[in-house]
Amino acid sequence: MTIQTPPPFVATPDDRVSFHRTELGPILTLYGRMVAAGEWRDYGISALRDMAVFSVFRRTAENPLYRIEKRPKLRLKQGQYAVVSMDGQILKRGNDLAAVLRVLERKLIRPVD
């Protein structure tokens, strides 16, 4: 009878893309302002294999109004952050998250009647 040693434990890195705390700060600040204005009501965060998504909802049971996406593979091409509307149109894309989120801040500014 031979004694076999078990193979060494190899930890596989978590291969999902997610938002970092420094990225979630500006996103949640904008979300809080939009909730206070009555525009948004709910959100969802998805960490997928090739991208992370922060989805914003007006009501819980409907499709997201906007998606804030992080795709690190596009970092050197078009920019890793993007704001996508409900119909799939890319509103803004770039590597600076604050600049990309400004397109949604403009929606908060409305003329007063």
TrEMBL record:
<protein>
    <recommendedName>
        <fullName>DUF2794 domain-containing protein</fullName>
    </recommendedName>
</protein>
<dbReference type="InterPro" id="IPR021252">
    <property type="entry name" value="DUF2794"/>
</dbReference>
<dbReference type="Pfam" id="PF10984">
    <property type="entry name" value="DUF2794"/>
</dbReference>
